[in-house]
Design goal:
eight-stranded antiparallel beta barrel, 51% strand, Lipocalin, 136 residues, alpha+beta, 2 helices, 8 strands
Length: 136
């Protein structure tokens, strides 16, 4: 019986350590998209390639006051707004206004290890995109 209790305790400890929360302070800084993958079977290869080119030229800056800015070769004026990290869901939300329209983009943070962060954006019936960012 004691061996079973010890085994269950070990399994519980391993499970809890694998389910660790992301340290939100590690998000603060400047990030560049270095990888872009899609699971969007209904989109044409031309649309996907254009999205990839834009994504790989994108840089984000996340500040301590929860503001962010984003620039890319296709959006040289950039966008800025606020971000929020929802730790229980490991979800990252960015809100900004563009041409008077308020936009919310939501990403699931898959991993944040050292200077690499991977996130996925669900796009409904279109599928999903995943990006890996490197901290500069």
């Amino acid at each position: 019986m004691k061996k079973i209790i010890n085994l269950l305790s070990l399994v519980t400890i391993l499970f809890c350590s694998c389910n660790s929360q992301i340290n939100e302070n590690k998000i603060i800084g400047n990030w560049k998209v270095i990888e872009f993958d899609t699971n969007t079977p209904t989109l044409s290869s031309g649309v996907i390639e254009t999205a990839k080119i834009e994504a790989l030229s994108t840089q984000y800056s996340f500040e301590k006051d929860k503001s962010f800015s984003m620039k890319s070769n296709f959006n040289s004026n950039g966008k800025s707004g606020n971000y929020k990290y929802l730790s229980k869901k490991k979800t990252f939300q960015m809100t900004y206004s563009s041409d008077g329209v308020k936009t919310l983009q939501e990403y699931q943070i898959e991993s944040l290890n050292g200077d690499l962060m991977k996130w996925t954006q669900e796009m409904g019936n279109l599928g999903s995109i995943s990006m890996t960012l490197k901290k500069e």
